[in-house]
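Attaching the record inline, Q. Sequence:
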Amino acid sequence: MPQLLTPDICVIGAGSGGLSAAAIAAAFGVSVVLIERGPMGGECLNTGCVPSKALLAAAKRAHQIRDAEKFGIRVGNPGIDHKAVAEHVAGVVAAIAPNDSVERFNGLGVDVIKASARFVDPDTVEAGDYQIKARRFVIATGSAPLIPPIPVLDRVPFFTNETIFQNTYRLPQLIILGGGPAGLELAQAHKRLGSEVTVVEAGKALSRDDDELRQYLLNRLRDEGIRVQENARVERIEPFGNNIRVVFANLGRTYSIEGTHLLLAVGRAPVVADLNLEAAGIDYSERGIQVTSGLRTSNKRVYAIGDVTGEVNLTHAANYHASIVIKNALFRLPAKADHSTIPWVTFTDPEVAHVGLTEDAARARYGKLAILRWPYAENDRAQAERETGGFVKVIASRRGKILGAGIVGAQAGELIQMWSLAMQKGISLKVMQSIVSPYPTLSEMNKRAALNYFAPSAQNPFLRRIIALLAKFR
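Structure, as predicted:
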């Protein structure tokens, strides 16, 4: 007979969201069971965010060596040891892994079960030798690479994010299906590490992003020699000698490209197949588990967070979801998830970061807008660092309410946080332009962009008459 456990909360999935939910709940002294069938840390630590950023860091160093002459430093073309690069990536994952380990969470007071979880009824889960009847359940099983139904795909080998980071050699001609953040990040990383790279995207690359910013990035990627083919509907993928051929249609014509290797980065699918959600009375679709604004499923005992909900596939969104669920499940507070001010970043070089509405979305909703920009080229720190490409773009209402912001350029992911905070707390452009930033920093650009909203006031005839009148008094 399985051993019965009756914790206050049972969390299924030890990715970022599940770990956060378990840790927070345990910190408040409630009993927690955490179930994970795979590696602790989930996709983000093992096959996603962490290894991809480590690979990008290695690729950036190679690019900086090639580009060092503009600083007066002559180095030449770098030698790249692909096995050592893979070891660097694995080393970064290994350095972070103890923070997500079974031992750490046992130390926090969490009972960790390494097994698959399966609902047997609305308030019971089986996992290994255990049966868990919890007051509340949190499903945080995340997502997995989507494998598209492309004819003949099963006849060719391909990478996904779950396998690409295990590669230890140069990929001579890499074809990437998918022009989203993951596809473009890995395209640039491999190009800078010596591969020829072609990206094939069925629609618009970075389709969620502001069109002006995404076009700027795509131009920069193409300048580096990365081929990006948009609006390319793949018809089939087939062996071509020792290589791979991708046949696609564009504007009524058929084209083909050949490469030595293929990477699929076309999206993510929620991991729900083995949970037996029907037994728990939990509604779901191919997009994910259906949840309320409070992240509760159709079974009132069960919450779902992160990628498995299909709401926002971002690690920091899963962590945010965890905090919402804890407020609801432990404190009975009517907390609701608000995704409108969650920022997102594509970690290419230059980075592209957004929060809130894009210009097109804002125009559709509000009509007339104030669009504020400030270029990197007019920032002294950017000039010193030779990082003058890019700009800050702020979308505001005519009355000055911040509706969204986007940044393309160096450290955009860091700079966007000021705008995210402003939107979350209702901070006005007036306050943003009054911030005193240290000199010289890139953050001055945020202030300069906000200041642009008030620039027309300097030309106001009435204000000029007031200034002239005041000047007459000593």
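The first helix runs from residue 16 to 27. The radius of gyration is 25 Å.

More tomorrow.
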